Amino acid sequence: MNQAAIIERTKSYVRETLEGEGTGHDWWHIQRVLNNAVLIGEKEGADMLVVQLGALLHDIADFKFHGGDETVGPRVAKEWLEQLHVTPSIIERVVHIVKDISFKGANVATPMQTLEGKVVQDADRLDALGAIGIARTFAYGGYRGNELHNPEQAPVMHDTFEAYKNSNGTTINHFYEKLLLLKELMNTSTGKALAEERHRYMEEFLTQFYREWGD
Length: 215
Ligand code: ADP
Ligand code: NI
Prior knowledge:
Blueprint lengths: L2 H16 L8 H18 L3 H10 L14 H12 L4 H13 L14 H12 L3 H15 L16 H6 L4 H7 L4 H4 L3 H25 L2
Nickel (II) ion (NI) binds next to helix 2.
């Protein structure tokens, strides 16, 4: 199968699997990540087959929706690509992206080994920022049953992935525990530049939020 066909088949598979998901990990999230990954990847000179497959498959079976099991996503991605007869070395590089992409806590390093991984991680993180990032954060916080805001609860800088995963902090605290940290964690200069405006927008949102709250 040629590269274009592999990508098209994967798109249909991911769309069917994630369509209608209600917490911001849906097909449209994948499409936005794909678009930004292509934009960044082309500027950075990455292997675009690996970038596109990584972007498409990065949330195919997220641990958050599989009882905290981080091995499901990489396994599902691997099995999908194997039955399309994708070259083993490409599969390995894509599976690494799926495995390593996630944020794991403020004090936990999440290095990406390859340029393609850095590109897809940046594209995924851009979708956690700005207006869309804010919308997704409240959608996911609501799904978990977390409070919107509680001025008596301070943010927690998590030292381990376990602590981060099990946290039920407020959604406003998630901005401090993750979202506002992402700008400095962007891997590529293209990603960093795109993150600036979205970061500022979140700061403005928080200022207005506190103004209305009456702090
Ligand atoms: P990553 O893309 O690093 O794997 P996740 O899939 O964990 O990140 O998170 C994607 C988005 O889901 C976050 O950017 C945020 O909007 C939302 N999210 C994740 N965890 C929380 C949380 N504890 N509270 C509110 N929103 C969250
Ligand atoms: Ni994602």
